[in-house]
Amino acid sequence: MSRRGPKHFAKLAFVLADADEPADTDMSHFRDRILAADAGDELLALWRSKLTAWDFEQSPTWSATAPRTPERRAEVYDKLAFGADLRKALDTAVPVHKEPGPVTISRDFEPWYTREQAANRSFYWTSYERLLRRKGWSDAAVSSLDEAAHAVVERLADPTRDDPYGARGLVVGYVQSGKTANFTGVTAKAIDAGYRLVIVLGGTLNLLRGQTQRRLDMELIGQENILGAADPNDPDALVGIDYQDDEDWPAKFVSFGARPSLLGAFDIERLTSRDRDYMSLERGISALEFEKPDRTRPLYAPANLHAARARVMVVKKNKSVLEKLVKDLKKIGPILGEIPALIIDDESDQASVNTTDPKKWEAGTVTRTAINGQISKLLKLLPRAQYVGYTATPFANVFVDPGDEEDIFPRDFLISLPRPTGYMGVQDFHDLDGVEDGEEEAEKKHVRGIYDSTGDRLQEALDAFVLTGALKLYRVDHGVPEGPFRHHTMLVHESVRMAEHAALALRISTMWHNGAYTGPEGHARLASLFERDFHAYADDALPTPAAYADLKRYISRAHQLIAKGGTPVIVVNGDSERDYAQPDLDFDRTPNVWKILVGGTKLSRGFTVEGLTITYYRRTTQQADTLMQMGRWFGFRPGYRDLVRLYIGREESLGRGRTAKTVDLYEAFEAICRDEELFRAELARYAPLVDGRPQVTPAQIPPLVAQHLPWVKPSARNKMFNAELVEVRSPGTPIEPAAYPQDDKMTARNTERWKPVLAAVSGAPTTCRLLPDDTSPLSRSFQAATTVISHAQLLSILSSLEWEEGNVLAPHLTYLSQLDGRLAKVDDWLVIAPQRTQRNRIEATVLGQGPFSLFRRSRQSGKLSFGRISSLEHRLYAQQLIDGSNSAFAGDSSAVLGPTRGVLLLYPVVEATQDDEVEVVAATGSAAADRVIMAFTIIPPKTAIDTKQRLVRFQTRDSTRPDAVVVNAS
After folding, report:
1. What is the pLDDT of residue 583?
2. Distance in angstroms (rounded) separating the CA atoms of residues 869 and 862
3. What is the rounded CA–CA span in Å between residue 141 and residue 595?
4. Distance separating alpha carbons of residues 674 and 421, to the nearest angstrom
5. Which residues are CB-contacts of 561 (< 8 A; sequence separation ≥ 6)?
6. pLDDT one-digit tens code per residue, 286-315
7. Do 624 and 672 meet the contact criterion of CB atoms below 8 Å apart?
8. What is the pLDDT of residue 438?
9. Which is it for strands 612-617 and 645-649: parallel, antiparallel or unpaired?
10. Residues sharing a CB contact under 8 Å with residue 30, sequence separation 6 or more, in sequence order
């Protein structure tokens, strides 16, 4: 039962058995064994691994079903010839994992890296997979990584191909979500497949580069390759060899049992080490002289390639380091053209992107920034080099000029990794789909706002740090594994100025020493904080003391660990590399780092803050990717995610003098998170192939996403993009503009255009009932006024609306206008005007119609865009109607949607942050047209698409003929 697919199990078992003929009882015994198996049973573990691998496999040759679906599992059972009882037993033991997989936007590529080929050469991948399982990774997590890494490698060029080709790709992960694990898997698969030079660009600091080197050495390269010919039992032979002072050596470093070359595989030679960045080829150019059993043929010929050692280097993104590398490579000569190479660029949007102003370039030449220029030279020197960037903030890479053949635009593929299981991310801190008039759960659990009225709350944050440390110690004593609690940290980020860091560190130290944590005053503060916060929001599945008295004895131990070495504070900033080499800051070599880290930008990019539990964040910035990278509070928090708290400024000053303004950092961060999530959702929507061809290529992503990102301003460079978005088709999917005009006159005219609909929807409200779903096991309801309008009437209104920065609705109108029968047929639209709950309802007439329930919405920081217009319950209800749950709408026959009726949610919105501002607008009982934005969400019927199922259409312009007519790209 290989990855070639499942086979008839009973026949295979019979062939391998000693019996003369198959017996039906064997299968019943098998079923009984599965039913009786406990969690650690080896047979069950084997089947869990195999079923999960088959469930996850993308586009296998043996199946046309979608991965991670009941249909895929049913086909597996059919091929195994399992009966209903056995299927039921296995489904109970190994449920189908339905979480989304990686999303791939790709050009057509030449298939070469099949599952069979991957299985035939898999020495380093198999070793890495075993290590992940030993570390406790689930079958689903391992299979997910396997599929994502395979998707990258199969889109690289075949390392044995005759004509050189360098693929360019980008992998988009989440902040602190395990991107290193993915590129380690990619490296393992790539060298197994034949890539013989791997260059990892590992951050801009020695510490970051060293972290990456150690991770690859520990999990991929292994003891035998690190030791080389040295005898591990001879102390003299170990002088100068890495990791002899590392407490994890050798126990946690992967071992193959012997040199890989003695086991039928190939060795890896490291050209850099943990403490030594690339200085020069230590043995001169001979370090890149590859052994060729057949010297008459090039290195990339299979007979030569698979016998050769792989070379791996982890290089800091530093101009002088990269210049040395380029200089040395130039000495090697023609062999460079034969080496299949892989360049992995960690945090590829930092330093790697060319940020020079195209307006200042001399005619016919491209001026490059230092790092970008060196990467470009590397790619030219190595014509068989593949470039794969990794980042959590992809916009800089996506907006690189795709016409620059020597740059790093991901012309071949972009892969968006799924949010990993157990990852604490955007949705845990921001209620992106807030319930109307309800409590914001994520914010209530984890976010503590800093307002003028609250004071700076720094003492409270320090108390929370001590308290959560004590809670971790309590949990270890009550059976929770202590591994994730090895480090316990707090991050304080207020400024980028180093002088202010020193002053802040002194202030924190003073506050700490005056905190009286082991005295009555300190215990009183901690007891109060425990009761009102940490006890109230504790995870019921984890041990938490019922009262502070049960926690009190752990406080002194937590205090002792934090104060170890005389100070609880470490200052981390960019004064010099030595600031990052402090013993207390080395999470790898220090047994326990229980400290408060004070710093700026250098704590925000690539640096993994282990054990981070309390964050105190008040730094302002207007750069979206900078703000996103500062989300160090995202990550894996096993055993303590309920203890994580974010203290964040909600009324911070930005700028000086007349330009000064007050900003809400939590709100600003949420706006960026929405852009990121929308970007991922857009990729997922357009990723499915149509007639076996991609709907969208990487070069078409910029115009696809730019319409949602008002902060991405047009520049000379991104005007070069030759793709213009023409049409977006949304059958069964919400269309929800967010960037409504700010101009009062324009708003009033737009409101006037909705007057016929407002008149029609002014009747008595109806009760709308949601059926139980994934968001709630209970049925819910809300009141709404309804009517039905014709498709022609809605199209007329939408076409006449005015917008301030281009018609954001234009690509959708192109689609909607064809629903008159040309593309598909939509007869009419059910209009639903929801009402707020009776307790929070503020009503007023609009243009003499109504009254209507007025909704409060605020624009995202610095943008025209609001956040979500539609409320979650309203949108879920509309979606249930579209999906066919017609029984949800009680007492209104107009809500029975046929295949030619869509849904329109209509909201009279007042731009406001508080209800009292809405009450002012409604004070006279009539809301002025220029104060009411008629916002809407449209959901076309699922049938509103043609048989080709294409969801997006572009126009392209021939960049060599600027005056050429626009042609359709279908």
Report:
1. 57
2. 17
3. 31
4. 20
5. 469, 488, 592, 594
6. 677 788 899 999 999 999 999 999 999 999
7. yes
8. 54
9. parallel
10. 86
Give the β-pairing of 594-599 and 447-450: unpaired
Helix (H, G, I), strand (E, B) or coil at 352: coil
What is the per-residue pLDDT for 631?
A: 65
Gap between the Cα atoms of 670 and 862, Å rounded: 12
Residues ≥6 apart with Cβ < 8 Å to 45: none
Give me 422's structure tokens: 């157990």
Tokens of 2: 């290989």
Task: Look up residue 854 and give its two tokens.
Answer: 């007025």
| Alpha-carbon span 970 to 968, nearest angstrom | 6
Instruction: Check: CB of residue 646 under 8 Å from CB of residue 447.
Output: yes
Structure tokens at 504: 């802040």
Instruction: Output helix, strand, coil percentages for the chain, rounded to the nearest 5.
Output: 40, 15, 45
Q: What are phi and psi of 699, to 5 degrees?
A: -65, -20
Residue 276, exposed/middle/buried by CB under 10 A (0-12, 13-18, 19+)?
middle
Q: What is the pLDDT of residue 630?
A: 61
Query: What one-letter code names the amino acid at 69?
Result: T
Contacts 24+ apart (CB under 8 A), 31-39: 31/85, 31/86, 31/89, 34/86, 34/89, 34/90, 34/93, 35/89, 35/92, 35/93, 37/93
How far is the C-alpha of 128 from the C-alpha of 456, rounded, in Å? 47
In the block, which residue shows the tokens 């326990």?
Answer: 592
Q: Which residues pair with 474 in a beta bridge?
A: none
Task: Report the candidate in 784, 786, 793 with the shortest Cα–Cα distance to residue 820.
Answer: 793
Distance CA 766, CA 747 (A): 29
- C-alpha–C-alpha distance, residues 238 and 229, integer Å: 10
Token match 């006449």: residue?
800
**Phi, psi (rounded to 5 degrees) for 953:** -140, 140
Strands (E) across 822-942 are located at 828-834, 843-846, 849-853, 855-857, 901-911, 926-927, 933-939
What pLDDT does 624 receive?
46
Sequence letter at residue 691 = D
Residue with tokens 């064994």: 33
The upper half-sphere exposure of residue 219, i.e. CA atoms within 13 Å in the direction of its Cβ, equals: 24
Residue 439: half-sphere exposure toward Cβ, Cα within 13 Å = 4
Alpha-helix runs per DSSP H in 382-535: 395-398, 426-429, 441-446, 458-477, 498-513, 520-529
Residues lower than pLDDT 50 in the chain: 1-2, 575, 624-625, 707-721, 886-894, 957-970
Asked, as a colleague might, if the bond just before 402 is cis with ω within 30 of 0, I would say: no
pLDDT value for 735: 93
Tokens 């920065």 found at? 805
> What's residue 428's pLDDT?
87
Stated as kind and residue range, the H or E segment containing 797 is helix 791-800
Question: What is the model's pLDDT at position 363?
Answer: 58
Residue with the two structure tokens 């007042």:
910
Write down the pLDDT at residue 967. Answer: 34
In a 3-state reduction of DSSP, which class is residue 650? coil
How many beta carbons lie within 10 A of that of residue 967, not counting itself? 10
Q: What are phi and psi of 549, to 5 degrees?
A: -55, -35
Place of tokens 């690339």: 278
- What does each C-alpha distance from 886 to 731, 827, 878 come to in angstroms? 18, 18, 10
